[in-house]
UniProtKB/TrEMBL annotation:
It comes from Fibrisoma limi BUZ 3. This is DUF3108 domain-containing protein. It comes from the Bacteria. InterPro entries: DUF3108 (IPR021457). Pfam families: DUF3108.
Amino acid sequence: MKKFLLGIGVLTLIATGFSTMDTYRRVVNNSFGPGEHIEYRVHYGFLNAAEAIVDVSPTLYKVNERPCYRVNVDGRTVGAFALVTKVRDTWRSYIDTNAILPQKFYTSLRENNYRKEENITFNHLNNTVRAEERTERDVFHVPDNVHDVVSSYYFVRTIDFSKLNVGQVVEVPAFYDDTIYNMKVKYRGKDVIKTKFGRINVLKLTPIMPPNSFFKGDDAIKIWVSDDANKIPLKVEVELAIGSLDMDIRHHAGLKHPLRFF
């Protein structure tokens, strides 16, 4: 009888364990991995305005008992722009390797005299987000499979766009700055662009922006990503209310698949 009860107990633990594991989705990721490094240059007209570096750590981290990629995004103004507007921003996301969901998100913003530093912890089992070291409301209820601003981009990279129709919109729930919103990206078809490394086949994407006075229209941001398994952004154009910004890739290393230029 004791052996029978012990057996039932073991089976219950196993069943419970698998039930807990199954609460996480599983996303097939053939697009990125540890050690990916990409650098971008941002232009305002003919002037170099800023640079951005996107790094996936070569080491995996364990956060909330889950293996995670650590992704750093660093942006800063350069040259004459840094004299007028000094920006030193860092976003860091710990992205679950199996679910491609954030487990932790760190923000450090230094923009002229403005300062903000914050750590956000995601609990996908009970659909909450907790902002650490906050004196105000610090726990938020969020929808299933919610993202931060960095992990949402990496999740979009795992999407098979060959199965989408031109004009189709992908929606990803996201949490940023105490706000829950649906990030919407429209697939605009295929194209070929010229880069410093040569010409390359790309997919055209347009994030759908809510009405505002900062961007020029709801399709003010256009992104061209490599039409391959990597799906990394190669070029970005942003139409502002005053002028426009262009971002181009200037260096890449550690990609999961070689880029095919011609």
